[in-house]
Prior knowledge:
The protein contains 2 helices and no strands. The chain is mainly α. It has one domain (about 5-95). The longest helix has about 90 residues, at about 10-95. The mean pLDDT is about 85.
Amino acid sequence: MSKSELLRITPTRELQLKNDLLDAMLEVARESKEAADFSIRRGKIVEVLSIAAAMATEIREHLDVEVARCKKREADFTEVLKCFQEATAVNKFKLYDR
Length: 98
């Protein structure tokens, strides 16, 4: 606006300009709040994902331990089965040997 235009501003026009300025400031404040809210939501999402990743790691470690236990039990069972089969074979041999 030129100086002559500024001098001709009526009180009504001045109020309108102030109102427009306040509207613009309010819009900036809303956008800033939305940006802050988004940042907070993003931060919470990252936090939840970090917790989920930690839980997944913990579950994976627990499953690895359980798999190792199962493999040990399977190996023990295989050893017992082998001994049983050998004992059965010896007993059958003794039966046929008589």
